[in-house]
Amino acid sequence: MTLKQILYVRAVSKAGSIGKAAESLFISQSSLSESIRNLEREYGMVLFERTSKGISLTRQGEAFLKDTQLLTNIYQDLDDKYKNHKGECEYFCVSSLHHVSGIDAFEHIVCQPKNQKYHLGYFEGNMDQVLQDVETNRSDIGVLFFTSDSRSAIIKACNRRNIFFQHLKYDLLHIYIQNTHPLAGRKGVTLADIQQYPFISYEECHPSSARFTTTRRQWNPQQQIISVSDRAMAYSLLALGDAYVTGSGYLTQEDRRRALVSVPITDLGQIEIGYICNPSRVLSELALEYIEWLKIITV
Fold it and tell me: With left for phi above 0 and alpha for psi between -120 and 50, is residue 269 left, alpha or beta?
């Protein structure tokens, strides 16, 4: 059984004759009749009753059309989508670690869509999620950062997944805190300075659950850790007290609106900020434009 045979049966049923159906399908009557006979022989059934007055479905034929209705609908939806709307809708998605400049670059893209129809996406997650999104083509671009200690493992992971990493900038890892925090206003902090404050982590609770760690857990055991999955919860926790979260140091417009400040950790070493993409995927104009905004804002 093929999809073409299913569509042929439906066309004959709708037209009421082999001749009219063949004309609508732009094929010969003999080809259409032979295709349907092959289907009937394959499954030992009779789909149409042929009389001098024309052609009509048998009970087996009615059951066949009912059973294949869902498949036909799916095909029709796909055909309409890619035939009638080709080139009208632009698609572009980004996956990013939290607290990096990717979100502001994305806002520039949102404000300047080239077509009336578009589907844009911005997903924040941990390192594993960002790598997977780019590998599976869920996202065109991934924005990330990592410490020098993590670099070797992450670059190897990119190579295994056939993902290309492009360096943008070296910087210091920063803490994000409320502007009323005891450490706010300082030009820099050390690991010892932040040890006494609760640490908000975007990784899972179990220490061994994350393959790649860009947070403070990697460097020194922390007594107070709060694991969250999204930025909104982190914002709420930061507003409640003296907790902190780590990131690239870039302050988005939303960070500033929430009275957050970023302070560099001076005794940890540098982090590397960059983006990843899948070489097997041709980058769209939106993706290339996003990369240019990312470079301008980050560098």
Answer: left
What distance in Å separates the CA atoms of residue 261 and residue 172, rounded to the nearest whole number?
A: 15
Query: What number is the average pLDDT over the span 264-286?
Result: 92
| Three-class SS state of 84 | helix
Q: Could you please report the per-residue DSSP string of 199-230?
A: EEESS-SSTTS-SS--SGGGTS--S-EEE-SS
How far is Cα 186 from Cα 242, in angstroms, rounded to an integer? 15
pLDDT tens profile 53-100: 778 889 998 999 899 998 888 888 887 767 765 556 788 999 999 988
What predicted TM-score, i.e. pTM, was given to this entire model? 0.66
CA distance 148 to 242: 28
Q: Where are the beta strands (DSSP E) in 85-201?
A: 89-96, 117-124, 141-147, 164-172, 174-178, 199-201
Q: Residue 49 corresponds to which tokens in the numbers above?
A: 């009753």
Position 248, amino acid: S
pLDDT at position 191: 92
Name beta bridge partners: 201. Answer: 227
Strand partners, 118: 90
Residue with tokens 């975007």: 202
